[in-house]
Specification:
The protein has 11 helices and 14 strands. By secondary structure, the protein is of the alpha/beta class. The chain has a single domain, classed as Rossmann fold (3-Layer(aba) Sandwich), CATH 3.40.50. β11 and β12 form a beta hairpin. The two termini are 35 Å apart. It binds 2-acetamido-2-deoxy-beta-D-glucopyranose. 2-acetamido-2-deoxy-beta-D-glucopyranose binds next to loops.
């Protein structure tokens, strides 16, 4: 067992060096060969007064379950480390999830750490070392700030409303929706399968007028905010495995507050499942790994315990750090 393990390890390291040395942009269609992926989730800064007694940063369990349901393990990433420590973590994990929440997209620790990983991922992918990033809600907004180099958000309130997506023609040839059955693609445009809980977003007009966003991302879907503004609701990198949704796929299966319009229909659940599987499969294309099993075990979220938060937040359970 031990021998097999170490030879696999050597092969993976070798394969990684090979592809890094080629210095060719990553192929988005490469094979998913890593069946033990670990996706990092950046912790989020606590801003809700009711949550402050429990910790300075947190991850709602729904995001953890979302990633785990796709067949990956999760590493929580704290916001208090040095740049060199994030560089080390980057070499250990196979993808990154930027979750929703409330933080300054330029000056917060969340933004600072996200930027470090974003730059590492950009360079890695450009050199053939596949590394995916997924941004949900504020995580997607942050991706647009990182790509554009400026904050282009404006008021696009869609608070506690489930919507169908207005898919663009590019959605048909997207990677994100490639494996979807046609029945679900149809449902996606007709049924309220996507939960929206946001006040800001990127207007479609702004997206189309911004050279950097326009050339970096394909626009897969749009929606209309309460104030009538058309906003960007789903994007994916044209040549980088970076994905963003202004809506919340994790709530469809893992959040249940009655007052919240979380979509729980069979199609809503299928949508959430397929997106989790899609993103984790992107993680399987990354060959990054921990230096040894002990380091891996001590880094994963399994040793942390979420607390019940259903009686003081919109979440059911939360990990605090
Ligand atoms: C929430 O429920 C837990 C477990 O029953 C309890 O210990 C805690 O005091 C409750 N919190 C609030 C704010 O009601």
């Amino acid at each position: 067992m031990l021998n097999t393990g170490s030879s696999t390890y050597v092969c993976l390291v070798f394969a990684c060096c090979l592809c890094c040395n080629k210095a060719m942009p990553t192929s988005l269609n490469q094979e998913a060969v890593n069946d033990r992926p670990v996706i990092g989730i950046l912790t989020q800064i606590v801003s809700d007064e009711a949550m402050k007694p429990f910790g300075r940063t947190y991850i709602p369990s729904s995001y953890v379950k979302f990633i785990e349901s796709g067949g990956s393990r999760v590493m929580p990433i704290r916001l208090t480390l040095e740049t060199t420590e994030y560089e080390k973590i980057f070499r250990n994990i196979n993808g990154l999830l930027l979750i929703g929440g409330s933080a300054d997209l330029k000056t917060s620790d969340f933004a600072r750490v996200a930027k470090i990983f974003y730059r590492l991922a950009l360079t890695a992918n450009d050199e053939g070392d596949f590394f995916p990033i997924w941004g949900t809600c504020m995580g997607m907004q942050l991706l647009t700030v990182l790509v554009a180099g400026e904050n282009l958000l404006e008021a696009t309130t869609a608070e506690n409303v489930a919507l169908p997506l207005n898919l663009t023609p590019e959605a048909d040839s997207s990677r994100m929706f490639e494996g979807f059955p046609s029945s679900l693609m149809k449902a996606l445009t007709q049924e309220p399968l996507t939960g929206n809980f946001h006040h800001y977003g990127v207007a479609v007009k702004t997206f189309k007028e911004n050279e950097k966003l326009q050339s970096f991302f394909s626009l897969l879907s749009t929606n209309i905010a309460e104030n009538g503004v058309h906003f960007v609701s789903t994007i994916e990198g044209k040549t980088h495995p970076f994905y963003g949704v202004q809506w919340h796929p994790e709530v469809n299966r893992f959040q249940w507050k009655r007052k919240q319009n979380y979509p729980h229909s069979a199609h809503a659940v299928q949508l959430s499942s397929l997106l989790a599987e899609f993103f984790v499969n992107e993680g399987r294309k990354s060959l990054h790994q921990f230096d040894n099993p002990e380091e891996e075990a001590s880094s994963l979220i399994y040793k942390d315990t979420p607390i019940y938060a259903g009686n003081f937040t919109g979440y059911e359970q939360i990990y605090f750090f």
